[in-house]
Amino acid sequence: YVAYKLYNFPSPPSEVLPTEVLFFPDEGIQCPRLKTLRGCLDERCRFKHNAQSLARLEEVIGSATVSLDVCMFVIGSQQLMDLIVEAHQRGVKVRCVSDNQDMDGVLRK
Q1: Per-residue pLDDT reduced to its tens digit, 95-107
Q2: Whole-model pTM?
């Protein structure tokens, strides 16, 4: 929104503005069994059984259909990179902004 005001662009429609904020790092890793039909039934499971930011981010990236704007200091997760590349391969317009100082050429390809 700040960029729209600074450069006198017309204000974006309200449905384009972000409606949630994700904080990192998560307090733990979400149980992978939560995505199955039965969920996790293991009483000794050491994974988290509540919503985690990383799982939500994966869901948002995976459900993008038109465009995806990613702004992260560093994209350090190969899993997230794979999801972003998959979105691009299925025709989603992807724009990424990150700090390129310590990237060692990985994301510049």
Answers
A1: 988 876 655 555 4
A2: 0.59
